[in-house]
User: What shape does this take?
Amino acid sequence: MDAFVHELFVKMRTERGFQAQVVSIDHIPSLQQEMERRHRENLFDKDFYQERLGWINFGIPRGLPEARSLIVVAVPRPQTQAIFTWKGQRRPLILPPTYTAYSETRRQVEDLLAEHLSMEGYRLATTALPLKLLAVQSGLGQYGRNNICYVSGMGSLLQLVAVYSDLPCKKDTWQEASMMKACEKCQLCGKACPTGAISSDRFLLHASDVLCITTRKRVTFRFPTG
Assistant: This one.
């Protein structure tokens, strides 16, 4: 990592709490192959793959054909509490970090990177890549057994953003996707999952409408009455 990139990442971490990593664009084919393997081996539910992963595009953006690297950023994001009024009583509902202001946060990160990269004559372009897999293989984060991406110092309270750039990658940190050591022998997530979407027979979630609550087309909220 050259001095400019190091200084930029330190500045982002110090001033905003962001963490970032840069890897070569040469790894995009391996990302694509891994996603295709999972699809081929039926590790993705068909409807889930079409509806939730159909937006992925592994092609180099036309607006930046000279792209040389991928910059992956983890942004600390708090949970959001929504308050519903039910039969005259206020009921709180906790929403995950990425359920609010997702696009706004992505644009803010892209604008920040664009501003600093332009000072050195570099450009960027938006990606449409599998962000968790990219973050884990870049060395920025690790998978939990629940398939959530964890980043040191943030846990899972974060949002991932990735961009293409013509910035050269002088020190590549690419690695095999890994699960946190703390999760290797732990089954707490699987035991706590109310639908059995987290199972011991495979690493990936059973992310179908039937099992995974967050992918259901319709979610019925049941508030406690006591």
